[in-house]
Amino acid sequence: MKKTLNEEKKRIIQLMMRINEQAFNDAGEPLMTHQQYRDYSEPAEPEDALSSIANKFLEKHKISKAYLKKESGGLCWWFAKNFSDYLRSKGIDSKIVDMRGSKKGNHMVVKVDDNFVDFTMNQFKEAKIPSLFKKEDYIMFTQFSEFNSWEDRIKAWKMTPKQWNEYEKKLKHPGDQGDYFEQGYSDDDIVNKLCEEYDNTQIVKIPKNQWRDGKTDPTEYSYEHKHIRVRDDYDENEDPAGWMAHEYKHAALDDEGFEDDGLPYPQNSVEREAYISQFKYLKQKGYETLDAAFSIPALSHKKHHRNILQKYWDMA
Predict the structure, then answer these.
(1) Which of 39, 150, 274, 302 has its CA 20 to 30 A from that of 77?
(2) 89-112: b or e for each residue (b if 16 or more CB lie within 10 Å)?
(3) Is beta strand 143-147 parallel, antiparallel or unpaired with respect to 131-133?
(4) Cβ contacts of 296-301, under 8 Å, gap ≥ 24
(5) Sign, CA torsion 188/191/197/201
(6) Does residue 169 sit within a domain?
(7) What backbone torsions phi and psi does residue 227 show, to the nearest 5 degrees?
(8) Are 207 and 275 part of one and the same domain?
(9) Are 33 and 90 in the same domain?
C-alpha cells in the first residue's frame, strides 16, 4: 500500500515518541548524548524528508549536483520517469506534472503532496539542487497536467515513430557518468548526438507491385544499405501498426553493433528487441492487449506467432 509523505511523518513521530520514553533511566540519567537526544527529539519535516529521499536518488545514480547546475534541457523526462519509479519502490505516492506555457516546450517534475521536486533547474538557476517548489512558483507556466504514472503520461502523448525512438533515447541518458559530459557537451548536445542515427536513417518507398515476394510486413530494414524500405501503401508517418518503430529499432541496434544470438525468427534477440519497441509504441497509442493490436490490418498476419509475441508484449 502506498503512503503519503504526511503518513510517513506520523510514523516517524510515533517512533520518536517511543524513543523519547526510553531516553532516560529510572534515575533520570540520559541513555544517550545530548546531541543524540536532540536529534531524536526533532523529527524531520516532510519537506526535509523528501529532500533527503531526492538526494539519495542522486547518489544511487551517481549524478553530481555540479552536472545538474549545467544546462539540462531534456533531462526532466529522465527524472520524471525514474524518480517517480524510485518513489513507487519506496511505497510513496507521487504524480508526474507536465507544465506548459506560452512559449514552445514543456517542463516535467514529480509532485509529492503539494511539493514539486525539481532536479533540472531550467528556470531556477540559483536554487539549491534538488529543489522543492510549489505550483505558484512556476509563474512562467499556465497549464499543469497531472498523471498518476509515467506510463499514463506516455499514453496521453501521441508521438510519431521517430519521436518515440528519440524519446527512448532520452530515457537512456546516463547523466554525468556519460562520456559526452566528460567532453564538455551540453545536455542538448547529448540528446542530439544520441538521436542523430535516426536523423540519418534513410526511408525508401517501394511500389507495392515491386515489393519483395513473400514479404507480408509493409516495412523492412536493410542492414546492407542502412535504410528502411516502406511499401508505398503503408503510411510511415501515421505508422498504425508500429512497423516504423520496429525498423527504427533495427537501425539503432545495427548502429550499436548489437549481435544477434542466431535463433530463428522471431525468437532471436534482434527481433525480440524490435518487437518490444514496436509494442511499447502501440501501448502508448492506446492498445491494451496483444489481441487488440492484432486487430490492426497491417499486424494481423502475425497471429501465428502469438505465443512468442505475447512474451514480448508482456515485456514491453
Answers:
(1) 274
(2) eeebbbbbbbbeeeeeeebbbbbb
(3) unpaired
(4) 296/240, 296/241, 297/241, 298/218, 298/234, 298/240, 298/241, 298/243, 299/241, 299/242, 299/243, 301/216, 301/217
(5) negative
(6) no
(7) -140, 165
(8) yes
(9) no
- Give the residue from 237, 233, 225 showing the smallest Cα distance to 209: 233
- The answer to whether residue 60 sits within a structural domain is yes
Is residue 19 domain-shared with residue 72, that is, in the same domain? no
Domain match, 56 and 38 both: no
Same domain (yes/no): 62, 105: yes
Q: DSSP letter at 44?
A: P
Give yes or no: residues 39 and 83 share one domain.
Answer: no
Q: Letter for the amino acid at 172?
A: K
Within 10 A of 313 (CB to CB), how many other CB atoms are there? Answer: 21
Per residue of the chain (316 residues), give pLDDT as tens: 454 555 655 554 454 444 444 444 455 544 444 444 444 444 445 667 888 899 888 888 777 776 666 545 557 777 888 899 899 888 899 999 988 876 656 788 999 999 999 887 644 445 567 888 888 888 878 889 999 988 788 777 766 666 666 666 666 554 544 333 344 444 444 445 444 444 456 788 888 888 988 899 999 998 888 889 999 999 988 899 999 999 989 988 888 888 899 999 999 999 999 999 999 889 888 899 999 999 999 999 999 999 999 999 999 9
Cα(17)–Cα(308) distance, integer angstroms: 55
Domain match, 27 and 107 both? no
Cα torsion 134, 136, 139, 140: sign: positive
Residue 264 lies in a domain: yes
- From first CA to last CA, the distance across the chain in angstroms is 25
SS3 content of the chain, % helix, strand, coil (to 5): 50, 15, 40
242 CB neighbour count, 10 Å cutoff: 27
Q: Is residue 165 situated within a structural domain?
A: no
Same domain, 210 and 109: no
Residue 20, domain extent: 5-43
SS3 (DSSP) at 93: coil
